[in-house]
Predict the 3D structure of the following.
Amino acid sequence: MAAPPDIKPHVDAIMTALTNAGLVVGDGGVPPATSIPATGIYVALYFDPGQSLPESLADQRTDFALSFQVTCVGPTPEKCRWATQKTRLALHAPLAVAGRTSWRPEELGGPPIQRDDDVSPPVYYLPVQYRLQSTS
């Protein structure tokens, strides 16, 4: 029996796609303050553990589904939406997941843009859910 699919190549593919799009990315939260650009725009990624799925009735668990949230942040609603559109463009094409064949990430939506007044100065954020699936 083969080992279950690994989450790391999937996370790496998502991080690479967003970074290559010119976005500053934090894994599991806000990126380090020293890496946030003067524009104040960044994205924070949050991953679930993923799910190994059977490819057939033989129960070969080679398919993999990973849900994740991209929280786009900006100092104004417009800049927050700009980061959201950059994210959407970066995740539009199939991602290169090492050793796997992947579907295009599926955008699942999210709540409306919100303002965070708990930080100074306030920022706007927009969390968008996605799912990435792959097979061996």
